[in-house]
TrEMBL record:
Source organism of the structure: Reticulibacter mediterranei
Location of the FAD dependent oxidoreductase domain: 5-360
Keyword rRNA processing: no
Cofactor(s) recorded in Swiss-Prot or TrEMBL: FAD
Keywords tagged on the record: FAD, Flavoprotein, Oxidoreductase
Protein name as annotated: N-methyl-L-tryptophan oxidase
SUPFAM superfamilies referenced in this protein's UniProt entry, alphabetically: FAD-linked reductases, C-terminal domain, FAD/NAD(P)-binding domain
A GO molecular-function descriptor: flavin adenine dinucleotide binding
Length: 388
């Protein structure tokens, strides 16, 4: 039986998850191309941790997708015999008139997720680290937690190789030619070589416009900063004492070390507010004003940070769609090419599920979640040009 050649461009969480899903589905010739290496520092999937939260306001679909994703993460843990997810609980501090906190609580209750409301005094008693004065609504979900991001990437890499998949690092795709449907899709590499494929998945994160520029996708690339604080009292800010949290645009994690269990223990916090537009190939330039603003807000929320050391600031890039929903679709003029973009800073937690969704597009099998909402056509007419 003929086995199609499938090439995935990009070895971040989406690309690796797609390769894993395709191999599980029985595909044999699956190759992942990565312009650098798996888990390189400029990758949007790189890092100590990602937040796994269920809270999406009244949006039931994303909450359901997080449930499906967590099941898949736990299955990956069993397969790999590694810890990829650590429950920490998630404390949400909000307002009665916001559109997220109360609505999330009701959606989570309906979905059977263990969430409860806290009075201000209960919040102060259970989590005295927080300044609650600016908030009047508090919820706590015991299933929220940390995904150990870099560890997840390396685990998927090993599983893919064990299953017979191929991962080629330091290979940059410069152009994809697909002008004649009677011939395979041709991927032109920076080495001058050309790779033929029956199907292609483009999962390049912030480099989406490098290969899909002619499509004029409505995706903006923004610079984001992540702050790490040291010299905090471990007893007050460790896991099981201090939860992951979200408050307005802020979110953060208890003290944790690098995902492999080594390195310094830091408290991580940041803002989800979208930053300035950037070019992914530019060297990161630290905007001290933005970092100072985020640090000030975090210190207002967590007064103990006033005495902590801002030990490290990292940066990453979001690929932001206008409606903040994912874009998962076929190329408008060629269904042999599938692409994922618009992950908008909240895509990592959905990695294994996104891999299955893209795999279903490639293999034309029923997806675990309806994909209508994520089609590019929702933005109107997209230019159908050649991929360059």
């Amino acid at each position: 039986m003929y086995q199609p050649k499938i090439v995935i461009v990009g070895a971040g969480i989406v690309g690796l998850s797609t390769a894993y899903a395709l191999l599980k589905q029985g595909m044999k010739q699956v190759t992942v191309l990565e312009q650098a290496v798996v888990d390189h520092r400029r990758s949007t999937s790189h890092g100590l941790s990602r937040l796994l939260r269920f809270e999406y306001g009244p949006d039931r679909l994303y909450t359901q997708m997080v449930q499906l994703s967590l099941n898949r993460w736990l299955s990956l843990e069993r397969t790999s015999r590694r810890i990829l997810y650590t429950p920490t609980g998630l404390l949400s501090l909000g307002h009665e008139n916001d559109t997220v906190t109360r609505a999330s609580y009701h959606v989570l209750r309906e979905a059977g997720i263990p969430v409860k409301t806290l009075s201000r005094q209960e919040c102060i008693t259970q989590f005295p680290q927080f300044n609650t004065k600016l908030y009047e609504l508090f919820t706590y979900n015991t299933d929220g937690g940390i995904l150990h991001a870099s560890f997840c990437l390396h685990t998927l890499k090993e599983l893919i190789l064990d299953m017979g998949g191929i991962i080629r690092e330091q290979v940059r795709v410069t152009r994809i030619a697909h002008d004649n449907r009677q011939y395979p899709v041709r991927l032109h590499l920076h080495t001058g070589d050309v790779l033929a494929a029956d199907h292609v998945v483009i999962a390049t994160g912030p480099w989406v416009h490098r290969l899909l520029g002619d499509q004029r996708l409505p995706v903006r690339l923004t610079r984001q900063y992540v702050l790490y604080f040291a010299n905090l009292p471990t007893t007050a800010f460790k896991r099981n004492t201090f939860p992951a949290f979200q408050a307005d645009d802020l979110y953060g994690f208890p003290i944790h070390s690098t995902c492999g269990g080594y390195g310094p223990g830091w408290l991580k916090g940041t803002s989800h507010s979208f930053g300035n537009s950037v070019d992914p190939d530019e060297m990161p330039h630290m905007d001290e004003q933005v970092v100072t603003h985020i640090a000030r807000k975090l210190r207002t929320l967590l007064p103990a940070l006033e005495q902590a050391e801002l030990a490290h600031v990292d940066s990453c890039i979001y690929d932001v769609s206008p409606d903040e929903d994912f874009i998962l679709d076929y190329l408008p003029d060629d269904p042999r090419i599938v692409f994922a973009t618009g992950l908008t800073g909240h895509g990592f937690k959905f990695g294994p599920l996104l891999g299955e969704l893209l795999s279903s597009l490639v293999c034309e099998t029923p997806p675990p979640v309806a994909l209508n909402r994520f089609q590019v056509a929702r933005f109107g007419t997209i230019h159908a040009g050649s991929v360059a």
